[in-house]
Amino acid sequence: MRHLPNVISGFRVVLIPVFIFFMVSGEKMAAAIILAVSGLSDMADGFLARKFGWTSQTGKLLDPLADKLTQVSVCVVLMVYDLPPGFRPFFAFLLIKDVLMLVLGGYLFKKQVSLEGSKWFGKLTTVLFYFTTTLIVLVPGLRFEVVLAMLTLVVLSALIAGVKYAPIFLKYIAQRKTLND
Fold first, then answer.
1. Which CATH architecture group holds 4-180?
2. Distance in angstroms (rounded) separating the CA atoms of residues 75 and 91
3. Which of 56, 69, 81, 118 is 20 to 30 A away from residue 26, measured at CA?
4. Any idea of the CA torsion for 92, 95, 97, 102, to the nearest 10 degrees?
């Protein structure tokens, strides 16, 4: 049971091509369900890991990796297949942010930096992302103003999280340099 959160994170990675398939096939209800399941399973794996102390370095790597891979995939698919051009800059920003986080996370992993878990502001951004994108896929006729407001909230949350994560990343770099000296 201790590895259940990691299995759930792995399951989220497996859901990515399924989501892409349904979106490309025009099966938006199925795609929205897959996206919602991915978001709910993200909450479940984190809850189980914290509640029962089933955290691990593997989980601290796999969970955010599954998040970022999912978010990158959703952004690309929505930008290519399903968004009016006016919303593409929002998803382009989120895409760049997630790719940057993947690169920085890979750098820390390569440097064998021991990671803490995610913070509440990162979790909030992830929840807002899943909620907003699931709603956009599920209800394609949402009013422009509603989508604009939701995407603005996601981007603002991502910006705030980025500002709050920056000193943590710098602390990791300093920690690694101290260990190497």
1. Up-down Bundle (1.20)
2. 5
3. 69
4. -160
How open is the CA angle 162-121-135, to the nearest 5 degrees?
100
Q: For residue range 74-129, what is the model confidence (pLDDT) as tens digits?
A: 999 998 876 777 888 998 999 998 888 888 877 877 777 766 667 778 889 999 99
Please state the pTM of the whole predicted model.
Answer: 0.87
Alpha-carbon Rg for the chain in angstroms: 17
Helices marked H in 25-143 — which ranges?
28-52, 57-77, 88-110, 120-138
- CA distance linking residue 168 with residue 121, whole number of Å: 13
CB contact burial 71-102 (16+ within 10 A = b; e otherwise)? bbbbbebbbeebbeeebeebbebbbebbeebb
Q: Following DSSP, what letter does each residue of 22-53 receive, concatenated?
A: HHHTT-HHHHHHHHHHHHHHHHHHHHHHHHHT
Stronger pLDDT, 179 or 167, i.e. the higher one: 167
Give the residue carrying structure tokens 């997630």. 98
Element (H, E) at 86: none
Q: Answer yes or no: is pLDDT of 158 > 60.
A: yes
